[in-house]
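pasting input
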Amino acid sequence: MTAVTAGMLAQFVLASITAALAFSVPASVRAVVSGIACALTAAAGVVTGALVLAGVEGSLTLALALPVDPLVFEPTRLGGLFMVVISSVGVLVSVFGIGYAHGTAAARTSWMSLAFFLLAMQMVPAAADSVSFLLMWETMALCSTILLLAEHRNRREVSSAAIWYSAMSQLSFLLLLGGFGVLAATVGSTSLAAIGSSVSHSPAGGLAFVLLIVGFGSKAGLVPVHVWLPRAHPEAPSHISAAMSAAMVSVGAYGALMVCMRLLHDGPLWWGLAIMVIGGVSAVYGILQASVNSNLKVLLAHSTTENMGLVFLAIGASVVLRGSGATAAADAAMLAALLLTVSHALFKATLFLGAGAIQHATGEVNLDRLGGLLRRMPWTSAAFGVAAMAAAALPITSGFVAEWVLLQAFIHGSPAGGAPVSVAVSVAMPLGVAIVALTAGLALLTFVKAYGIAFLSRPRSAQTTASEVPVVMRISMVVGAVAVLAVGVLPGPVAATVASTMRLTREPLVYMVGAGGISIPGIGVLLDPGALAVLAALIMVPIVVIVLIVSPNHPRRLSALPWGGGGSRARPRMQYTATSYAEPLVRVFDDVLKPSRDVQVTHLGESQYLVQRVQVEQRVTDLIESRLYRPLLNRAQSFGKLARRAQNGSIHLYLGYSFAALLIILVVVAV
Amino acid sequence: MTWAAIAIALIQLVFFVFLAPLVVGVIRQVRARLEGRAGAGVWQPWRDVRKLLRKNPVHAEGSSWILTAGPLTVLVSSLLLCALLPLVGTLSIPLIPNDLFVIVSLMLVGVVALALVGLDAGTAFGGMGSSRHMTVAALVEPTVLLAIYALSIPAGTSTLSVIVGTRLQTPAVILSPVSVLAMVALAIAIMAETGRLPVDNPSTHLELTMMHEAMVLEASGRDLAWLELGSWLKLAALLGLLGNLAAPWGILTDLSIWSVAVGIIAVAAKVLLLGILLGAGEIFLAKVRLFRVPELLAGSFTLALLAVTASYLVA
Amino acid sequence: MSAAGLARMIARAGRIAEPAPPAPALAAGAEVFGGSVDVRFINAGGCSDCALEVMSALGPVYDVERYGIRLVASPRHADVLLIVGAVTQNLLEPLRRTIEATPTPRFVIAVGDCAISGGAVGNGYGVFGPVSSVVDVDLNVPGSPPEPAQIVEALRRVSGR
């Protein structure tokens, strides 16, 4: 019984205790007790994952009453890393939920489901064979659907979102089942460790690769199987959205990383190109949809698609570079994929928790009705601001470090020894840089919009009674923001730990320089964001001195109104809203977004020249949903209607069916 | 090596704080003379900054500390650009490489701070300027990154100091088609990023045509001084980078009194020459419609993409 | 017009600005500006003849930019408020707002007889009063309308160049 085994067992035990407590304690203390118990379950996951990363090994075997082999959990170092990340998000979500959960989100069912949801999410990376992996995966999907349905009585959209979500998650499950089944049939065992790189170049390997990547990609929210994400994440209670968007999509990323790093290592070139294409398209599409959306939670959900697209772009680039001989750059690209996943989990959790805090304080998530929250909610705005900076990849945050590593991997993609560069690399790498740059620019706009419209200037609606959220909710957001900054300022230790989970061809990939900076000698780059921060601070000194000298003689004066032309009707309603902020972008990209515009003019009486009312409606919908899914769904529905004709209720016809079936069976058996 | 690099960064900082208003003064003076006027003299921007520091700033009720901290962030971001870019010397501070993503991200910190100042104003003008400014910034970023990527391929690294140093050692690289394409794309991107014609008119009074100016309409006194100085420093630093990429002679590679003097004079000459060309060129340009700007930027993006793929396939 | 045609026109035109007359004395309290003056123009309700003269004064012939004087869009950037016309009822509140939005130290210059004392429109029902009834005026430029040269001279008294 090693420490890791004890840790995994502890997670199971704590989750069961949590569920029991959530069921039995009275409603007045249910939130506190369940929240603390869930947090402890997640904390056990953090400790276990940290132990695995430190090199401790352990294996847990659970026999079930089901007619399957006993479940085996034996986390690899990659699994350990993801256990740490997912469990940390779980801790933040549980603590936040203590203060946030109200109404049906605080019911027994929800807390019990949260306990098992966290457990399942944490144990997926620890699974050592396909059956345990899929069982934990399905538990995770089921519990998240239950949690998503928490408010279905209050809002009609919740049910629709849950239907889409469960349909897509069952689709991904089927694909994973098929992929793992093909691999298990080829290798002869369900153990994941038995699948090696010998399968990679066979047709079975190719089939398994496609099934697994599309299945994991669906959970990660990639185009075109992403349509559930912008529906499900906004409709869930905010702490559940944070868990789903930060931790559950990381499980999808873990699956893809597992496929490319462990199971089907050293795959052919077309795998890498295929993953790069899916990832690149998802990244651009996701951030484009995010930048034109005015609902804060939908914006964050589309941003998840973008970030997962970047992760897959990095994974694909790694496969392509490895196939063309640039092994150092390939390793750096895989490191970038891992760093992007870790960074995304941290900042997306903080962002969704911040959105939850805003919803709790104002009752609104529509950016067009928010504003002026900076003064009333200083802690929330600080945490949200730091996380938004990370989402936009600005310096001294984790997002900056991750994108820096990714770009360096792309740029140094020429193979070692001066060998000629293949056509695939010479087209893929520049396009990769272009895609990363475009998404970074659009992400900048998106998060300036989200932060600026929600927190700055004046309130755009009557939500002036907003006040800061309770301490327990503040703690989670602040811890998340501090983690984002810590990874950003001390990338060296984090990257070294992350690199130790990779299967490297040679010596350590990452060295530490300076005070926590990161250096990748294989491609010859280094960076110390801490030194950058020190330089910026030093530059601030003379400026601060000048300001201190000048300001006493020239004090600020408070004026009643901002300068808006001096007009008499200057009102907060005249400010830019999120919709107007994104309007130039809608026009620039109107071929991709295809917004629908509807203008209705009501004339005054019979006159054609006097107008009583003008109504303008602009709608940007998901093009993939309307062009791909709707026709498919309509086709399925018409097929179903056709099949209904065979069920007209006549007992004579049904008896005739039975007779015909019996006849056919007799014929088949005879022949 | 470390002290030499830090000394160079300090020299660049101090010198460019002095040079940036001068460059803007030269640009305005060239425009005035070509328009048949006498002009205010090249030192007028310095007088403007001095006067702004003597005014008492006004802030509206409901505005936040962004109005105070934003201009300072813009200024610090521009100063960091001046300290890190290879302007006077190609020595880079250890642990802080001036590679493309670091430089572009530092520039974008200033862009974001300015956009937030515009949004905090709480007026329609501020939001409008902020929205247009961020749209242009989002569309310019791919071009900038790809252009510097194209320039980095002959040097083998994306650190700008090394790129300029390589161009100094093998001047044939400067005239290669790839390099010319990349420089043209970079020049267009810099014009868009610094808010010059034909993307934005820096001397307009009509709010509906403003991009950069609309965001600063609410700033006054020393806040406005920091914002103006920050944008002038960014312009001077980026012109210095363009000049050193196009004609790297004179930039210093190791520290000595003589090489520092030559480096300072060389970069001043390049920046002022580029400023004169910019001022004269703007006479012949009109601002393009906002919705035509993406076409211009897409064109420069295509040039940069061609440059990168060509350099891989040809070299 | 092509670029070549524009270049030819520039070469032919040469200097359009007229030579500068001698500098007038600096007004009291204007040392703080140090030769850089930003002007915000407000038409409080005049008949636009003073406005036309101001437009002419700010044009290339008089070239006030050489004295450090510039037109700005926002009163937050302004040092001098150049007001023409008597203050009408409709512009009373916007004028107050504009003045309040201007950071101190600031100068107010009233241009034209209507702005100074009511002039031709004096006691109409739509007029509130001269500019001095709303704010303290630092400099007056009398005339109906005053010459552009007088307007330029008043501005030069603020900039000191």
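fyi Chain A has a mean pLDDT of 90.
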